[in-house]
Amino acid sequence: MNEEIILKEADEQEISINMGPQHPSTHGVLRLVLSLKGEMVQKVEPHCGYIHRGMEKMTESMTYQQIIHLTDRLDYLSAHMNNAAVCLAVEKALDIEVPERVKVIRTIMDELARIASHQLWWCSFGMDLGGLTCFFYGLRDREKILDIFEETTGSRLIQSYYCPGGLMADIHPNFQQKVKEFIKYFRKILPEYDELLSGNIIMMERAKGIGKMSKEEAISFGMTGPSGRGSGFSCDVRKHHPYHAYDKVKFNEVLRTEGDTYARYMVRMDEMRESMNIIEQLIDNIPDGDFAVKMKPIIKLPEGEYYQRVEAARGEFGVYIISKGEKNPYRMKFRSPNFSNLSALDALTRGHKIADLIAIGGSLDYVIPDIDR
Amino acid sequence: MREIYNYFKTIFFALKSLWTGMKVTGAYFFKPWKIVTQQYPENREKLQMFERTKGELVMPHNEKNEHQCTGCGICEMNCPNGTIIVKTVINETPDGKKKKALDKYIYNLGMCTFCGLCVKTCPSDAIVFSNKFEHAVFNKNKLVKTLNKEGSTLKKRAE
User: Fold this and answer.
1) N or C end of chain B: which has fewer CB within 10 A?
2) At A254, which CATH number?
3) Cα–Cα distance, B1 to A359 (Å, whole number)
4) Are residues B30 and B65 in the same domain?
């Protein structure tokens, strides 16, 4: 009798627990304060800032070449795209036109990074739902891209390969052949991913209809990237505001209208195929030419404000520079996609079970250094 | 009746989807030559890194113990983290001219972020990245390295 009363009270009472900062499925040091009623989530309150490094302040004492190495430490899985944003902003300010070769190589590198990022997302999403096999399969294939990166750029994860005006080094002679081999290999392997996880009954039960978000809500939360496109929000910067060589290639913007976890999952799976299409169109016709424009050793941007956005693997990444005509920026602001996507977590999880929070968080694919900066 | 049919249909679909997944993993179980795992500490002798791999900064010396660093300090200026400290001395040549020469090239591996700006901006190609990637040491002080060797001199330019 007594036990029953206690249990009943516990059911009605709202309890708040901490998930994180040291929780494996938050993908880093993110602390979520959950208000629970029984097993149902009433409210999610993300507390950011555990690995805040003050990067925006750090940039104020650095030259534009040095800033590059900071931006790949924001969202380390789309390091190339983040670097590209800074480079494009500086080039736009100085009114420099980079050679065609640079544009094409940058596009290929960006798309390779996008595939690698989505592969890592796929393995961690599978592991969040309890499928450990996915983790090893995804990492096995990601290794091949990292090898391509290492051969050309010298690093595997945070490459610092772009610099204002071009690239740090020319591509390695083996680059084209290795990329072609990888595309051939990955076209064969990708159906295996679908067999393993996409059609799996456990995954479908846990993802379909969970964490629904309408298009209007997605727009008002500023959800971009695959998370926004899963709700039908057409927000691909590559399509709407082309940079690099994206205006020369044909590709589809992957859109889904369901807006649930499964839609976000499928958008990412299809994006990997689209990325492969883009690479295939470009890899055989990389134009000859210089790999960088000759720049002055000290770059001074003219006075003014500059903004450049790119499509990173998780959404729209923007760089806003205020220059006072000196070698350092007066102020630099990064618009990181994960921060906006995280703000939607509360609305997505309300009324779902605590286990669904893990699935929804996995489908948003947040990278904590990008949130905290 | 319809409910019972749906019930069994779900069970059948669930078993089928699990079986497709098991088929993929099972195929690899019977094809051990497709496994790509490397036995890392055992294969250290045979391990080949890519030539561009940024392991750690080194200063190549030739057989006469000569390096190419003039001590200009451009790498020190370009380093975003203060990893490199170039200490110079002013030597007097026999004919009375004063000449700056490198005394100590101090490189703190613990602070290096491997951005590659030092190597890229070096005007005399005196420093390169080596492929050595095993950096673990027991003491933090061992990460601070002096790159130029004892008694080394500047390589004379071919005239």
Assistant:
1) C
2) 1.10.645.10
3) 34
4) no
